[in-house]
Write a structure and sequence with these properties.
Number of domains: 1
Strand content: under 5%
Helix content: over 70%
Shape: globular
Number of helices: 22
Structural class: mainly alpha
Length: 546
Amino acid sequence: MNETKTPASVLPTRGEELARLLERPERHPKATGPVMLLFTVLLSAAGSIIGLQLITTLGITPNTALVGVLLTIAVSRIPLPFLKVFRSVHAQNLTQSGISAATYCAANSLLVPAGIPVLLGRPDLMPAMLGGAALGMLVDMGMLYWFFDSRLFPGSAAWPHGIAAAESIIAGDQGGKGARLLMAGGLVGILGSLAGIPVAALGTTFIANIPTVLMFGLGLLARAYSPAVLHLDLNKLYVPHGMMVGAGLVALGQALAMIFRKQHAAGRDPATRSDRVVRNALGIGFILYLAAAGVVAMAGGLVAQMPVGRLIGWVFFAAVSCIAAEFIVGFSAMHAGWFPSFATALIFLVLGMVLGFPPAAAALLVGFVASGGPAFADGGYDLKAGWYLRGWGKDPEFDLDGRQQQIISALVGMLTALAIVLVFHDQYFSRGLIPPIDRVFAATIRSGIDPSVARNLLAWTIPGAILQFGGGTKRQLGILFATGLLLTNAAAGWVILAGLAVRLGLQQKYGTAFATRLSVFGAGCIAGNALADFGGSIFTARFRGK
């Protein structure tokens, strides 16, 4: 696929600062260099095991990108000549991309789908499910590579966790005022985590688009307080699911309209991916998803269980669901730093059951859909970190070279994760260690769908669609409000409102120039919260294991 050159543009202040601060090497470090490849594999194996342990014991997957950064920086300080390569911020970005991809893919993209047929008493479906999940996550990563830094998923968007990783790498390399500001935010993040306060939400508020993050916060609060205020459980009424379906359909239509309509040159956003590249990628991705769904259907025995027409419908629905879920999860991660991958998979499971797919087909469907979103969202954070470190896209050729190396590093992590899961999944399942979300999927499949569910879904698609349409592609208001409704975190909602008040007050007093310093502090909050949560998760998992 051919690339377009980024037109001349005025970079944000932070981008100009980084271009001066970080020395651009003649060539970007290679992910396939012997030392780099070996270290990435070792980190990825460790990240995979961490992911498997935590998804089965706590039901969560930690962001190990910052752990990878810290370990790489520590290794780079060892006085051995062949370890000097890790002193490069771009090399640290590669290892961070590998361990992060391995952790999320081992836990969310592979073990979660594999556990569904086991809980349903159909272990014979597990090989087909695991193979389909592997194909799903690989296609998803390929589409991210083609989509990133396009008008659809711009590199200049928030991607809050990506900024946190990049600023942590810069602080380790350069120090100075930025490092002190980052460390101050990190201390707030750690203390907040110890106190049970989701300070990552505060950091996201200092980085993300204000209307978007406000809508996310309102969704969180609406979900939390509707039982007390309205005497309604929105989740049991499938209100979040219906709103996400409506918002997701409109978002998909908006995305297609964006990449298929012509744009005047004067209004063009700087990007290394043209609309033509994105259009081609969307077509290729859809074909790959169709092929992967066909493989899953044949390997899972659906050919013998379903009439030809319904089988074709299942394959088509699975492919469309994967792309829609990819957009929903990607937009949420890009704007708010949260991505409801499990909840999104549950939505398409419910829709599939409403369409009348039998239990085996429903199980394979939800696992296939669940396999891709985490790879897309987490990979987006990593590519944002690389884009940030390479000067905010000022040098398109260098940026694209680095992005290619990041994808290679992520693929190394993903393949390592696949090997770890293939070797160790029986040891988890035989001890009853299955991701908790799988019990939700299995219970939903067993219980079937009441006709009232379809009516509620249909009714709530309308407000979700209206909100998404009104906010437009820049804000994704419907997607973010529905994301908040799908999550249970009232504290994060209040933190977001408080953070917005602080942000608006500081900007009114000091002007928009203060925004750069605030975003660095916010990145520190996210980084500190993530590291504290990671350490706490490891401790809790070990305690439960005893």
